[in-house]
Amino acid sequence: QVQLVESGGDLVQPGGSLRLSCTASGFSISIAYMAWYRQAPGNERELVAKISRGGDPDYVDSVKGRFTISRDNAKNAVYLQMNNLKPDDTGVYYCNIWGSDANWGQGTQVTVSS
Question: Rounded mean pLDDT of 62-71?
Fold first, then answer.
């Protein structure tokens, strides 16, 4: 069955960096657009970035220039490099097939605070 496991979240100070990882099993990510989402406290889950099968990225305006999404089809993994983190980036981060609302993992907590 499809399984997505996110990792790499942590408590970090404003301006810091984190690299999130997402390992997929049960399917090959090579056939899919993949995406990272986040859910801040009290808010709905929102799209942060997505990457096409060919590796073309797209970002929401609030993270452009700070976040980089990448994929390694051989490892069946997707990554999110986050730089210059801000308190508004705080939330639980999830990866999934873009557009899918099934098979959500547990996510990884990112907290940006001084």
Answer: 98
